[in-house]
Specification:
389 residues; Rossmann fold; Glutathione S-transferase Yfyf (Class Pi), Chain A, domain 2; six-stranded mixed beta sheet; 10 helices; 42% helix
Length: 389
């Protein structure tokens, strides 16, 4: 599903922007701080109901404005049009996010994703790639957990539902563990049972996803950086590492038994520390250089150069894109922010060649106008002070 027209009101420094869209690659160019990335952020919001830059959606509203809107127009066939719309509203007492499909308000994010991808002619999804950002790999484990949660939810809305049930039980357990008096052991048992069931399901889907993208990541990496040492994805639970491609996927029942055992072992320590220490909310995605499974210090972030880390990040995101299309049969829109900055000529050449031979609808930001390098495949959009010129 391709965007036909994008309309943005009061998002970041964009007051009123309307962009006609086409097939191929849209090169959004201009000086820094002119609104290029805000266009990508708006498309991402329309697809995922979140920003890839800021966890606080209120920050997307143009300064001094109480209403912002992103609207996408689509053509289903020669005679049928459709629309997605997201509104950000700062009311007298609270901030609201409203999502509409063909003017109908969605009840929840789960409803929006489910309808948008599975029960509507509008099958639209955007994937963001920032090849210069290494925060995903260098940052805290929570960033990688959030990444897994987001990519799996985008292709499997039921995962989002399981995640909500897990988080609710986890919040209730943490509140219980902080109680000083009249500790309710029966409630703790019920909450642990909920955490074991939903937690095992989350881990199962995470492992399933990593198993599917492990080989594509290696293949993309070999094309992007032929001389770079292979990097294996691993899922870390405490001191346990599950190496993708090196193990049989455990059943949900086995994962439940493992969680039950760990909760039994860590239960007294959880009471002392007054917080939950076991579950997928503490797991991590790690990147291991080569096949040195026994060496815990062979993490990419410890031994890899900046260029090597960027290569793996690029391979990971391209594998994500292809897996989404394979799983959903929906061709996503690709958003690439800051194309030229800090990418060497080899990586830029690979990525540009990949884009040129792709059938995707693509939006790329850059300080330079790269549209001429692709001829008819390149669409030029110049930004200046929050406006298309």
């Amino acid at each position: 599903m391709k965007l036909e027209k994008l309309t943005i009101r009061n998002i970041r420094n964009l007051e009123e922007v309307a962009i006609p869209c086409d097939r191929g690659i849209h090169f959004i160019h201009g000086l820094n701080a002119q609104g290029k990335t805000s266009i990508l952020e708006s498309i991402y919001l329309l697809s995922n109901l979140r920003s890839f830059r800021d966890s606080d959606l209120h920050a997307l509203l143009k300064q001094g404005k109480e209403f912002g809107q992103v609207k996408g127009a689509f053509k289903i066939d020669a005679t049928t049009e459709a629309e997605l719309k997201v509104e950000l509203v700062q009311g007298p007492s609270r901030f609201e996010k409203r999502a509409y499909i063909n003017q109908k308000l969605s009840k929840s994010a789960l409803d929006y994703f489910g309808v948008k991808l599975h029960h509507s002619p509008i099958q639209f999804h955007a994937i963001n790639l920032n090849p210069t950002s290494t925060d995903l790999m260098r940052g805290e484990p929570s960033l990688r957990r959030n990444y897994l949660n987001q990519v799996i939810s985008s292709e499997n809305p039921e995962y989002l539902n399981i995640l909500k049930h897990y988080q609710k039980s986890l919040d209730q357990k943490n509140a219980l563990l902080k109680q000083e008096e009249r500790f309710d052991f029966q409630l703790l048992k019920i909450l642990n049972e909920n955490i074991i069931k939903s937690g095992a399901e989350l881990i199962f889907w995470r492992l399933s996803y990593l198993q599917k993208i492990a080989a594509p990541v290696l293949e993309f990496l070999s094309n992007i950086a032929p001389h770079q040492t292979p990097v294996n994805l691993a899922y870390k639970q405490g001191e346990t590492l599950h190496f993708t491609g090196h193990f049989d996927l455990p059943s949900i029942q086995i994962l439940m038994e493992n969680l039950h055992q760990k909760l039994t072992e860590k239960g007294p320590l959880e009471r002392v520390r007054k917080t939950s220490l076991v579950g997928p909310h503490r797991d991590d995605l790690v990147f291991k250089v080569g096949n040195q499974k026994s060496h815990l210090d062979a993490d990419l972030v410890n031994v890899g150069s900046q260029g090597e880390i960027r290569s793996v990040l690029l391979a990971l995101k391209l594998a994500e894109l292809e897996e989404f299309e394979k799983k959903t049969e929906v061709q996503p829109v690709l958003l690439i922010d800051d194309f030229s900055s800090e990418l060497d000529s080899t990586r830029r050449g690979f990525l540009l060649n990949y884009l040129e031979n792709s059938e995707l609808q693509i939006f790329v930001t850059s300080t330079d106008d790269l549209s001429r390098s692709l001829g008819s495949r390149g669409i030029s959009i110049q930004m200046n002070q929050g406006k298309v010129i």
